[in-house]
C-alpha cells in the first residue's frame, strides 16, 4: 500500500507522511547545527530576501482553473474545481498536493478587481485549506509536464458565512531538492458568489447583444435589372456559416434575455447574398457567390431569435460618432451622411426581420463621450447616448453604483453602462482558464453591486462590438448564471433609459480633454471625411442627369455610410482603400457620359452648322443635360448669333446623339470653339472638348468676278444660238431655188448672178470656223459636308452650309 501512494492521484498513507516529515526534521538537525556556527543574518538582509520572494509573484508551478461548477452554488450543492498544474521550474517537485482554500469575504468591487489581477500571486493572503481529505496529491511533478486535478467539496465544508463573494484559491504545495520543506509553489485564485436566498430588491440588468460585423459590400453593382451586388470578400459567408462567429451569436442569444444591437448594413449584406451576388477578386475580377443557402438559413435564425425581444438598430454602417465629432464636423455635409444612415434604418431592418426596431439610441465606441460626441450623436435624432462608467465617471462620494440613466440636458439621456461588467469578456476566451475566471468575475461584480444598497437600480452591460465566438460563449455562460441567480432580473434598454435617475449621480458630460488618447489614435482622419464629401458632390452631379437615379444613389449612398464605419478603427489604410475604390468606381460611371473629341473644322461661307456628339455608355438614359458651344472669338465666328448657344440633350442608354449648332463667319482666320456639358442646375459635367474652326470667307470682289464670268457665258451661248439659226435658214432657201430651176448640166459652169441687190445690205456667209469656241464653265459647287460620325472627326472636317 505504501508504494501505491507514489502514483499520481493517490494520497500517501498517514504513516508514510509522518515518516517523511520526521526524516526531514532529522535531516535538518545537522544543517541547523552548521548554521548556528555562521554569523547571524541581519534583519535587513532577511527582509530583503523576503521582498525578493514576494516580488516574484507567481511560483514555479503554474495552476490553471478550467472549470468551477456550479458557478453560483446553493446550500446543498457540491463545488467541483478542475484544472491543471504545470511545473515550469528546473527542479522536480516532490511530495506535492493540490488543495482548495477559502479566503475572506470580499465586500468591495475593487477587492474583486485585485483578486482577478493578482490571481497567481503566491505571496498574497490565501486563507486556510479545506480539509486535506479533499486534496489531490502527486508523488512528483516533472519539469515541463502538466497534470490534471479535480477537487470536489460540499458547500457546507467551505464554511461560507454571510452572503457575498468569497475568494477561492487552488494552491499547490510541495518541496524541491533546493528547498526541502513544504511550501506553496503555485496558486490560482478565483471568485465564488454566495447568495443562496433571494434578495428583497433585485438589480435590473440590461445586457446588450451586438450583431455587428465589418464592412463587406462595395458600391459596385451589376448592370442587370437586379443590380447584382458585389462583396469585398467572402468573409461574411464564413461568419454566418454553421459554427461561425455570427452564427454562434444568434444561436446563443436566442435563449437569453438580451437586447439585440444590430447594424442594418449586416442585415442588408446577408439579404443581398440570398440572391445572385459576386465577390471581388484580384485585379478587378469578380467571381459568382455561392452561399445563398447559408444566408437564407442565417436570416431565418435571426428572425426567430429576435421574436419578443427588443431590437435596437444603429445607424446604417455603424458610423464612428467620435471620429465624426472630432474630425468630420468641419467638413461640409458630414452630418448629412449620419442623418441618411439613420433615416434608412427602419426600411432596412423591418422588411428583413419583420420587427420594428428602436432607433433613438446612439452608441459611441467603448462608451467614451465628450460634449462634441453627444452633440453629433443627437444630431440625427437619437436622444439617448450609451456611455460607459470609465468615461462618465462619478464625481461625488456615492458609496454605491448608481443607476444607468442620467439626464444630461436638452432632453438627452446618457445611459451609462457599467465598465467592470462590460469589459470582463475582452480577453482570450479560447483558454478555459481565462473563460472560467471571466465568468466568475462577472458574477462576483454583479452580486457585489446588488448588495451595495437596498435602492432599486438599473444596470446596463455593453460589451465589445464584435465578440469572437469564444467570447460570445463566455458571455452566454455568465449571463445565464446571472439570470438564474437570486439577485438580478432582466430589463429592456428602453426601460433602463426611462428608469428614475439617482439624484446623487453625476450628470456632467466629461470634457474633451478626458477623451482617451488611445481611442483618438484610431479615429478616421479629416481627410477621410473630405474624400467622402468629394465623392458625394460627384454623386449629386451625376444623379440629376439619370432617368433612374435610384440605381446609383442607393448603392453609393450606403457605401459612403460604410466609409465612416467604426469597424475601420485600427485599419486606416484599408479604410482609405475602400473609400478610394468607391470614388474611382463613380468616376468611371461619370466618364460613361461624355463628348466625343473633335479635330479642326473648316468653314467655307458665311454660315454653316457644326455637329457635336454626346456619347452615353450607361445602361440607362441620361437627361436634364445642356450642351453649350462657345466661340472664344465671336467677332470672327458667331454661334447662334452670339458668343455661345445652348441646346438640351437627351441620350438613350448605350447610344450617341449629335447636336448641330448654327454658326456665322464675319472674317477669315482661325477661331477656337469650346463644347461643354452642363447639368440642369448649371454645374459643369465632364471634361470640355476644344477644337479650332478655320474660316475662309468669300469677298465681294470675288463675287463680282464670278458674276461677270457667268454673264459672259450666257451671252456667248445666245450668240451661238442665233448664228446657227441663220445658217439653217440660208440652207433652206438654197435648196428651194435648186428645186425650182430644174436639173442642170453637170458639165456646164455654174451660173453667176449679173446684179447685186440695190440698196440692200450685203449678206456675207459665215466662214467655217469663224465662230470661236467658249471654254466650259463650272456648275454650282456640290455640298462639302462629311457624313456624321460618332467617332472623333477627321483632320480638316468640313461642316454643313
TrEMBL record:
Domain of life: Bacteria
Keyword Membrane among record annotations: yes
Compositionally biased intervals (Low complexity): 55-64
Biased segments, Acidic residues type: 768-777
InterPro entries: DUF6049 (IPR046112), Ig-like_fold (IPR013783), TonB_box_CS (IPR010916)
Keywords noted in UniProt: Membrane, Transmembrane, Transmembrane helix
Keyword Transmembrane helix attached: yes
Listed transmembrane segments: 698-718
Region of interest: Disordered: 55-77, 729-801
Regions of compositional bias (Basic and acidic residues) in chain numbering: 729-740, 749-767
Entry protein name: DUF6049 family protein
